[in-house]
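User:
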Amino acid sequence: MASSIDETTISLTRGDSFFTTVTMYRTDGSIYTPVEGDTVRFALKRNVMNSAKNEFLDKTPLILKDIPIDTLMLHLTPEDTKELNFGTYAYDIELTYANGDVDTFIADAKFILTREVH
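Assistant: Predicted structure:
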Protein backbone atom coordinates (compact mmCIF):
# COMPACT_ATOMS: atom_id res chain seq x y z
CA MET A 1 0.00 0.00 0.00
CA ALA A 2 1.32 3.41 -0.98
CA SER A 3 0.07 5.31 2.02
CA SER A 4 1.27 5.95 5.53
CA ILE A 5 0.31 7.70 8.73
CA ASP A 6 2.88 9.22 11.08
CA GLU A 7 1.11 10.60 14.15
CA THR A 8 -1.54 12.65 12.29
CA THR A 9 0.35 13.20 9.00
CA ILE A 10 -1.12 11.19 6.14
CA SER A 11 0.94 10.52 3.01
CA LEU A 12 -0.87 9.09 0.00
CA THR A 13 -0.03 8.52 -3.66
CA ARG A 14 -2.52 10.42 -5.80
CA GLY A 15 -5.25 8.14 -7.14
CA ASP A 16 -4.67 5.34 -4.64
CA SER A 17 -7.16 3.92 -2.16
CA PHE A 18 -6.71 4.77 1.52
CA PHE A 19 -8.16 3.04 4.57
CA THR A 20 -7.59 3.79 8.24
CA THR A 21 -9.51 3.26 11.42
CA VAL A 22 -10.16 6.39 13.44
CA THR A 23 -9.79 6.23 17.22
CA MET A 24 -11.14 8.91 19.54
CA TYR A 25 -9.89 9.39 23.09
CA ARG A 26 -11.52 11.05 26.07
CA THR A 27 -9.45 13.48 28.12
CA ASP A 28 -8.79 10.68 30.65
CA GLY A 29 -7.17 8.57 27.88
CA SER A 30 -9.99 6.07 27.50
CA ILE A 31 -11.37 5.32 24.04
CA TYR A 32 -14.65 6.99 23.10
CA THR A 33 -17.13 4.78 21.24
CA PRO A 34 -19.69 6.80 19.26
CA VAL A 35 -23.35 6.33 20.06
CA GLU A 36 -26.44 6.57 17.87
CA GLY A 37 -26.86 10.14 16.69
CA ASP A 38 -23.11 10.94 16.74
CA THR A 39 -21.42 11.74 13.42
CA VAL A 40 -17.74 11.70 12.47
CA ARG A 41 -16.51 13.64 9.46
CA PHE A 42 -13.21 14.03 7.55
CA ALA A 43 -12.54 17.26 5.63
CA LEU A 44 -9.59 18.14 3.37
CA LYS A 45 -8.62 21.60 2.16
CA ARG A 46 -5.70 23.18 0.39
CA ASN A 47 -3.13 24.28 2.93
CA VAL A 48 -3.36 27.94 1.91
CA MET A 49 -4.11 30.40 4.67
CA ASN A 50 -5.14 34.03 4.88
CA SER A 51 -2.62 34.95 7.56
CA ALA A 52 -4.38 38.21 8.44
CA LYS A 53 -7.55 36.33 9.39
CA ASN A 54 -5.87 33.02 10.31
CA GLU A 55 -8.32 31.06 8.16
CA PHE A 56 -8.20 28.91 5.03
CA LEU A 57 -8.76 30.74 1.75
CA ASP A 58 -11.02 28.02 0.38
CA LYS A 59 -14.35 27.82 2.16
CA THR A 60 -15.47 24.46 0.75
CA PRO A 61 -13.50 21.27 1.46
CA LEU A 62 -12.00 19.46 -1.53
CA ILE A 63 -12.96 16.17 0.12
CA LEU A 64 -15.70 15.75 2.72
CA LYS A 65 -16.38 12.23 3.97
CA ASP A 66 -18.67 10.92 6.66
CA ILE A 67 -16.97 8.17 8.65
CA PRO A 68 -19.42 5.42 9.66
CA ILE A 69 -19.74 5.24 13.45
CA ASP A 70 -20.12 1.46 13.38
CA THR A 71 -16.71 0.86 11.74
CA LEU A 72 -14.90 4.20 12.23
CA MET A 73 -13.17 3.40 8.92
CA LEU A 74 -12.07 6.36 6.82
CA HIS A 75 -12.01 5.25 3.18
CA LEU A 76 -10.70 7.48 0.42
CA THR A 77 -11.26 6.18 -3.09
CA PRO A 78 -8.99 6.76 -6.11
CA GLU A 79 -11.59 9.21 -7.45
CA ASP A 80 -11.26 11.36 -4.30
CA THR A 81 -7.67 12.37 -5.08
CA LYS A 82 -7.00 11.64 -8.76
CA GLU A 83 -7.74 15.23 -9.89
CA LEU A 84 -5.92 16.97 -7.01
CA ASN A 85 -2.49 18.55 -7.42
CA PHE A 86 0.51 17.01 -5.74
CA GLY A 87 1.48 18.76 -2.52
CA THR A 88 0.56 19.37 1.07
CA TYR A 89 -3.03 19.81 2.20
CA ALA A 90 -4.68 20.24 5.58
CA TYR A 91 -7.35 17.98 7.06
CA ASP A 92 -9.37 17.61 10.18
CA ILE A 93 -11.64 15.02 11.69
CA GLU A 94 -14.50 16.10 13.90
CA LEU A 95 -17.00 14.35 16.07
CA THR A 96 -20.45 15.87 16.38
CA TYR A 97 -22.22 14.41 19.38
CA ALA A 98 -25.91 13.53 19.22
CA ASN A 99 -26.62 16.60 21.40
CA GLY A 100 -24.98 18.93 18.84
CA ASP A 101 -21.66 19.53 20.64
CA VAL A 102 -18.65 19.43 18.28
CA ASP A 103 -15.16 18.11 19.04
CA THR A 104 -12.53 18.53 16.31
CA PHE A 105 -10.16 15.94 17.70
CA ILE A 106 -7.70 16.12 14.79
CA ALA A 107 -7.30 19.72 13.65
CA ASP A 108 -5.23 21.27 10.85
CA ALA A 109 -3.23 18.08 10.29
CA LYS A 110 -0.95 17.49 7.32
CA PHE A 111 -2.04 15.46 4.28
CA ILE A 112 0.69 14.93 1.68
CA LEU A 113 -0.39 13.89 -1.80
CA THR A 114 2.52 12.36 -3.72
CA ARG A 115 2.85 11.67 -7.40
CA GLU A 116 2.56 8.38 -9.17
CA VAL A 117 4.74 7.22 -12.03
CA HIS A 118 1.90 6.58 -14.48
